[in-house]
Amino acid sequence: MARYHIETYGCTSNRGESRQIERRLRDAGHHRVDGPDEADVAILNTCTVVEKTERNMLRRAEELSEETADLVVTGCMALAQGEAFANAGVDARVVHWDEVPEAITNGECPTTTPDAKPVLDGVVGILPIARGCMSDCSYCITKFATGKIDSPPVEENVEKARALVHAGAKELRITGQDTGVYGWDRGERKLHELLGRICEIEGDFRVRVGMANPKGVHGIRDELAEVFATNEKLYDFLHAPVQSGSNDVLGDMRRQHRVEEFLEGVETFDDRLDYWTLSTDFIVGFPTETEADHRQSLALMRETRPEKINVTRFSKRPGTDAADMKGLGGTVKKERSREMSELKRELVGETYAEMVGETREDVLVIEEGTGDSVKCRDSAYRQLIVRNSSEYDLEPGEFVDLEITAHETMYAFAEPI
Ligand code: SF4
Predict the structure, then answer these.
(1) Which CATH class is domain 356-416?
(2) End-to-end alpha-carbon separation of the chain, Å?
(3) Mutate which of 1, 113, 149, 178 to test ligand 1's pocket (most atoms within 8 Å of Cβ)?
(4) Is residue 300 predicted with pLDDT exceeding 70?
(5) Minimum-distance ligand 1 atom for the alpha carbon of 141
(6) So where are the chain's domains?
(7) How far apart are CA 98 and CA 81, in angstroms?
(8) Could you check whether 3-103 and 356-416 share the same CATH topology?
(9) How far is the CA of 147 from the centre of ligand 1 (A)?
(10) 150 has a pLDDT exceeding 60
(11) Residue 15: what pLDDT?
(12) Ligand 1: centre distance to CA 353 (Å)
């Protein structure tokens, strides 16, 4: 869990992007603090409309990089003149706004704090079902803060879910560091049972399951695929971070799964579900990653064609075993990250291109988008944007039938039918 400080400069579009960054950081259990001096990481969302603004951004970045251990720069100046920060001697990670949450999470799992209470954010209910994990990943700093898995009983979580639905939640986001090991501390694998029970709750709502590591998924892959296949309330969406396509690197990361176990989990879902979304994560540039290991990760991405991919460039976290390993140079990491992000855009772009012309029933309107638009999610949690939404009088929380008319790389456009 990171304490973050965020500063946004420029137009409403930048402010809209910062809101989305914050929503996803909150989803992942990170906390906003009031000043850079209290923060583990500072986020600077830049503008570069005029030269004076550009100078102000560089000066502010310099100040923040001195006040905070970690600085992430995004926004227009990051996209248009990203190298200007390195040239000015500012030690910062320069990323697209959409990649800021991953950069903060740094390949680690989303964290739930002990006092984590269910949160209703618009029509979205965030339900942390457990705290901690069963792993000891060599690059992870979070485990020191959260310790081993602690799962409240199924009944307790069902009651929390019921309260969120009664409070108006139309989408329940089940979160935890590793939902796949829910119940292991009680000697049982309980995720599929919990999901089934939550889907029995009266009402029209959808359930998105948060990150589940491949090892936990592998152990209950049949039961999990079954509960997804037999419950319409459950988005057919599985987020299982594989992190690398090389078993050697997975060993050095001390990830508990092997590539084969990840693949068996994916195959089980493929056999049981016609239309679903695989979301996964790759850490690129891990210290022991060879060119051949990197090729294996690219090959795994091509083989499984995930519909959502988070790429994180490895960075050392203080106090972790991976921090003591001899790192790969910045240029190698940057080049491999560029190559992997390019493949990600190619594959995800093809996914959304194939959806054009198709129709979707009972799509949930989640939130206002930029301008006169709303963001919606279909049964596989694919993102559909309806433009000119005021014409259709669409409000967050409504279910609507849509026809997909066009696409961008990471989402598609649709119109009500
Ligand atoms: S599963 Fe690994 S990365 Fe995730 S919190 Fe546990 S030790 Fe950290």
Answers:
(1) mainly beta
(2) 42
(3) 178
(4) yes
(5) 8
(6) 3-103, 119-354, 356-416
(7) 17
(8) no
(9) 10
(10) yes
(11) 76
(12) 34
pLDDT in tens, 177-199: 899 999 999 888 899 999 999 99
Cα 217 from Cα 252, distance rounded (Å): 21
Which distant-in-sequence residues (6+ apart) come within 8 Å of 19 by Cβ? none
Neighbouring residues of 407: CB distance < 8 A, sequence distance ≥ 6: 349, 352, 353, 355, 356, 413
CA of 250 to the centre of ligand 1 (A): 13
Rounded to an integer, what distance in angstroms lies between the CA atom of residue 303 and that of residue 172? 31
Options 3.40.50.740, 3.80.30.20, 3.50.50.60, 3.30.413.10; CATH for 119-354 is 3.80.30.20
Amino acid symbol at 115 = D
Say yes or no to pLDDT of 105 above 60: yes
For the chain, state the CA radius of gyration.
21
Q: Taking the model in full, what pTM does it have? A: 0.82
User: pLDDT exceeding 70 applies to what percent of the chain?
Assistant: 95
Q: DSSP letter at 328?
A: P
171 has which bridge partners?
124, 206
What is the 17 CA–ligand 1 centroid distance (Å)? 28
Determine the residue of 30, 105, 135 to mutate for testing ligand 1's pocket, defined as the one with the most ligand atoms within 8 A of the Cβ atom: 135
As a whole number of angstroms, the distance between CA 375 and CA 264 comes to 33
Domain 3-103, second-level architecture: 3-Layer(aba) Sandwich (3.40)
**Counting atoms of ligand 1 from 1, which one is nearest the CA of 134?**
6
Question: Across all residues in the chain, what is the average pLDDT?
Answer: 89
Element (H, E) at 216: helix 214-219
Once rounded to an integer, what is the mean pLDDT over residues 373-377? 93
Per-residue pLDDT tens over the stretch 309-357: 988 888 887 788 999 999 888 788 888 988 998 999 999 999 999 999 9
> Which residues surround ligand 1 with Cβ inside 6 Å?
108-109, 133, 135-137, 140, 142-143, 177-178, 213
Nearest CA to ligand 1 atom 1: 135
Rounded average pLDDT over 67-84: 81
User: Among 12-26, 134-148, 192-206, 399-413, which is the least confidently predicted range?
Assistant: 12-26
